Amino acid sequence: MAEETKGRLTTRTMAMPADTNPAGDVFGGWVLSQMDIAAGICASQRAQQRAVTVSVDGMSFIQPVKVGDILGVYTDVVEVGRTSMKIHVEAWVRRGQIGSREKVTEAIFKFVALDQDGNPTPVPDKNDLPEYAAEDCSL
Ligand SMILES: CC(C)(COP(=O)(O)OP(=O)(O)OC[C@H]1O[C@@H](n2cnc3c(N)ncnc32)[C@H](O)[C@@H]1OP(=O)(O)O)[C@@H](O)C(=O)NCCC(=O)NCCS
């Protein structure tokens, strides 16, 4: 059975020629930055405030990304601490716009919610989230 995506589709973008390494494949750092952007959207929605990346674990580059691939990033909150959240992030591509979907990378990003002074601040209980934010988060 084909592997299924985990989490919500958070961002979509197209890999462009400027994003390639000297071998012509898309640079891993570009893919990582797309995952960080998506995880940041997910974390700040869950925290209802600014959140910063504090660690990235288990980053796997499973398949290359090619110019013209549509990269979709899926996010899922898998753990909530006092001020931190772990977000499972997967990036999938559709090759040539209509091709089959393939998982290219995955990792666990940890974010910390920050208050207006830049200090760690508690992540609210899920029951206190506005409906739109709660709908997108399993935890
Ligand atoms: C995130 C940051 C504010 C945490 O500061 P801190 O003084 O370590 O804060 P605390 O000790 O109160 O820890 C806050 C939370 O972060 C977690 N944490 C802190 N450092 C961590 C690390 N290196 N790895 C994993 N988790 C970490 C703690 O476990 C804690 O989680 P909890 O509240 O859910 O239990 C600080 O490390 C920072 O500013 N880092 C840079 C973030 C950044 O700029 N990211 C973008 C990179 S370009």
TrEMBL record:
One of its GO terms (molecular function) is long-chain fatty acyl-CoA hydrolase activity. GO terms for biological process: acyl-CoA metabolic process; fatty acid catabolic process. CDD domains: BFIT_BACH. InterPro entries: Cytosol_ACT (IPR040170), HOTDOG_ACOT (IPR033120), HotDog_dom_sf (IPR029069), Thioestr_dom (IPR006683). It comes from the Bacteria. SUPFAM superfamilies: Thioesterase/thiol ester dehydrase-isomerase. Keywords: Hydrolase. Pfam families: 4HBT (PF03061). Residues 5-117 form the HotDog ACOT-type domain. One of its GO terms (cellular component) is cytosol. PANTHER family: ACYL COENZYME A THIOESTER HYDROLASE, ACYL-COA THIOESTER HYDROLASE YCIA. Belongs to the acyl coenzyme A hydrolase family. This is Acyl-CoA thioesterase. It comes from Oceanospirillum sediminis.
